[in-house]
Amino acid sequence: MRLTGARGAGIAAGLVAALAFATSGPVVKPLLVAGWSPGAAILVRLTIGALLLAGPALLALRGRWEVLRAAWPTVLGFGLLGVAGASTLFFLAVDRLPVAIALLVEYTGPLLLVAWGWIRSRRLPSRTTLVGAAFAAGGLVLVLDVTGALDPDPVGLLFALGAAVGNAAYFAIVARPTDLPPVTLAGAGMLVGALAVGVVALVGVLPVEAPDVRVGLLGSEVHWIVPLLVVGAVPTAFAYGVSAVSVRLLGQRVASFLALSEVLFAVLLAWVLLGERPLPVQLVGAGLLIAGVAAVRRGADQDVVAGAAPPPLGSRPAPVLAGQGSTSAG
Questions:
Q1: Model confidence at 237, in pLDDT bands (50, 70, 90)?
Q2: Which residues are within 8 A (CB) of 72 and not within 5 positions of it... i.e. 6 or more apart?
Q3: Are 10 and 255 contacting, i.e. CB atoms less than 8 angstroms apart?
Q4: pTM, to two decimals
Q5: Exposure on the CB side of residue 271, measured as CA atoms within 13 A
């Protein structure tokens, strides 16, 4: 019963995090249209996220600084790859590719996890896992409605593939067994990510342009700080904290495929907030996406039994995690 409860809580946390992550695009898009550069938006977003997560992260740590010191490789890898790397490379890809193509390539991260598990264990994943992966990938293509003749920029594709690696690294690193509370990992990693993006911007790789403008949001004209506060709080501080709990409870593979629902939520939010009505083909893709996630979740259990993948909860079971979930959600 405890395992079932942990799985249920992990799925709920993952869906809430995906919905929170999906608010980023519709909220920040008017700011970019108004003249802000992606580099400036990312830097401010991560800085706000780090500040908002600082309190919960310290509260969850409860003065156990030795735990944070022992987990420094995990924090560093999470911050550099899962936060700074994924977000920075994705925005660099968007500079050269259509957003849909860049997003689609980045969200091949979960497929990279399946491939990595196959290489590491030298055992073919279960048929259910493979079918679920195919359904999820096909559904994602339909949801994004990637159609027409394309001639993508090769450098842009490399950036997008780098973002996919960062996406996969996020789930793989957070799923590692550690005594560090999930919200503390998220807060410390966010700080590392903000500092890393700051360095990248400082050397000129990411242009930083932040004019004092007013932007349209939900039918009103607001100061630029409003969308940035929303983006820093909801799809950054809140989403990363809750997502870290979900990955700990579900394991990297199931959580990463569950995170694909972010694309579905993003389509729905764009419909509601920006008037971008989804096409029938996207609704079909949504069904395939959900079916694929469900199949991968079932296949992950089969792979654990067959020895093709590590147990989803790692070597440390749920008693420690049960007290951490409420901390990150608060």
A1: confident
A2: none
A3: yes
A4: 0.73
A5: 12
